[in-house]
Target: Heat shock protein 15
Amino acid sequence: MTPPVPSDETIRLDKWLWAARFFKTRQLAVEAINGGKVHLDGHRAKPGKTVRPGSRVTVHKGSLSWDLTVVAISRQRRGAADAALLYDEDEASRSRRQELVRERREQGSAGAPVGRPSKRDRRQIERFKQAHEA
Model:
């Protein structure tokens, strides 16, 4: 990873979110910020708002939420391990998110069909379609 930028330097919020790997592109970061999914120091922010070490960032993606403190700034997007060094996540936020992911896994795997339909299933589907077309 590039060495952390000195603490007096700042970066745009959308660039930091992209470099910290919360969004795949800067455009997706901008859309999330404009949609109110990202808060900086407890307030809605604009994509060009400056972020510096010590800033508090809250990110909402779907049903997941991160409460972060900016630790360092990087102008380049690196691997996930390096990106994780750019922020500290609150322990409560981490445990809440892990619990939601665990619950989603337990619910999702119970009734979801796996793979292609069997020959018997395909025949039932064909019978159903023919019965409703007539």
Observations:
- The CA atoms of residues 6 and 116 lie 55 Å apart.
- DSSP finds five helices and seven strands in the chain.
